[in-house]
Amino acid sequence: MADGDYYARNSTPAWRKVENTLLGGQDFGFVAQLATSAFAETMRLGNGVPGLSRMSHALAAAARDGQRDQWGTMIESMRREHHHHAHTETIALAGQALLENDGDRLRNMSHAAIAEELSKATAERIAQQQFSKCRQGRSADDGAGVGELQRRERAAIARMDIAGLGREMLRAEDGRGFRAPARDSKPTGTEGLLGRTLVEPS
Amino acid sequence: VSVGPWRSPAGIEFRMSAPHAYRIDQARIAHTFRAQLPDRVADLLEIAMAVHAIDRLTPRSLRDPIGRGWCRELAPVIGVRDVDFWSSQVTSQQLTRLLDWLTDDFWTPMFSDREGARPPEEVQGTLFTLTPEREAAVACFSGGLDSFAGAAIDLDRSEDVELVLMGQSGTSRARKLQRELAGALAARTARVQPLLIKANLVAAKGQPQDRQQRTRGFLFLAMAAATALVADVGEVRMYENGIGAINLPYSHGQIGAHMSRSAHPKTLLEMQRLVALMDVGQLRVSLPHMFDTKAQMIAAVPARFADLISATISCDTWSSDRQPAPLNGARAHRCGRCSSCVLRRQALRASGQREIDACEAHRTDVFDRAARDDDHFALHVMLSQVAELTAATADDRPWAHLINTYPQLIEARDALRELGEGDRVEQRLVSLYRSYAKEWEGIDAPRVDEYLRGVHA
Fold first, then answer.
1. What ipTM goes with this model?
2. Interchain proximity A8–B63, CB inside 8 Å
3. Angstroms from B123 CA to nearest CA on chain A
4. Which of A25, A102, B123, B276 has a C-alpha 20 to 30 A away from that of B147?
């Protein structure tokens, strides 16, 4: 029953910039830099990733002792506790996929390492969600098909410092003080319209 | 009797009741089977209708780019006959779990004694009942293509089974469609019992309403469950194709209940659990076509019913379409742009019923390049999903790839296992999505080519 499906079509200005560069076929490194800044803005605006630490504890227990029922219960209670916050939902999705596909690998990892894995997977999914929101219903300027657009999106995400964003998510779970990882860029020596020196990805 | 809504410090608290805020024709269930409505069954109907009314009359705030206005805090106070049962921790937790899952809201339902006189169908006993004498099932009948195809297939496969086609709607347009279709099926086989129940809000015109209406599925299921319990039938069949039932997000920007979960296996499972707690009879809720695509369902419709396919309507917007139809009938019923219209057209073409698709009028032909770009939104996002499903199902480890792309499938798989679909659920789901993606590749339409393969391909 596909009635009344909802598509969030309102992005922040930072993500709209990412959208235009992605659909315009710009360099992936440049798109990734803009996306990293936009990601940090999303974290600050959206109160971070509520429930990340508690869910990483539950994920560690589920991976180590196979307590999948408790993990399921934790997902339900976190969703409710955080009023179905989009990022809490995303932690749940990332955790479920990790547990299902990488359960054996996670079993021998420390809790801290599992928390890092979960935050990294969550960061990647949040980036993917925002990119999808950017391009949903829109075609590329050069007429590329949807498959090609997805490839470009993945290439841009691969150039983002997802691990760095994940670590920052753990540090700033409530979103306050969330910082984007340092840009991997160098000055070009050219002055822009606003008198600033332009940078390009190194 | 007090009628809400008003805002309380704990969120939005509602007190509303029939007939001031909504109407539900529950007497029809009792009259059809000459049976009495048990208290808890009548309560279930009342709760479902009250919840639906509240859901519709509380619009979500959708302006925030982070989506913080999506979840609402809803604390309805609902008048029921068996307050102790509904207020008990186990029952109230189960109901909250189901509503939270369906709507992504923070529900805190509370119960009080129902006011007003009890209707005759609850207090008057009957001399004899008219419940089905042979093997029977209640089928959810919306008048859409899936519900029609499922009923036609079941009626053809088994000569013994009797179907109670339970239709529910608040609009006369939808009821007319359901009546005509159910009537046509009944005319061709004596094993169909149509039961159309009216349920609508009172004086809601002009009030701001929530467009998503995520509790519509709960109301539909509650009515089907009540019908099955009153008719003493042990099964409710939800005829929905597997793609529509799980309803994976078309865009990864869709989170939680952004996609309707009305026919999701987990919804059915939670509903089954709620009914089990009511202790008024055994009930099984099934999805007979869970592992079929819509095209496969159409292809399986027996020849003696095939001419009725074009009478069904799948469009999301047609029953609430307020545009006056011109006198010459030039304005088509079907919008052609919504995902339901697009999926119907895809399924008709993929199942070899291209001539039906060609005869059906749509206000927009999204398969054609001439339509405006805005009109292609649903087609575009659907094809984005198809591209991902194609890549995932072509992988060496298709299930691992699928759940990495769509972890939502894990909850669906677990629910299907609990609903008794066996251990091969993963393989069957992979096969379902592979077939669906392949069907799209075979659709010969300029826009589909352009989106799937690019302009220069």
1. 0.91
2. no
3. 36
4. B276
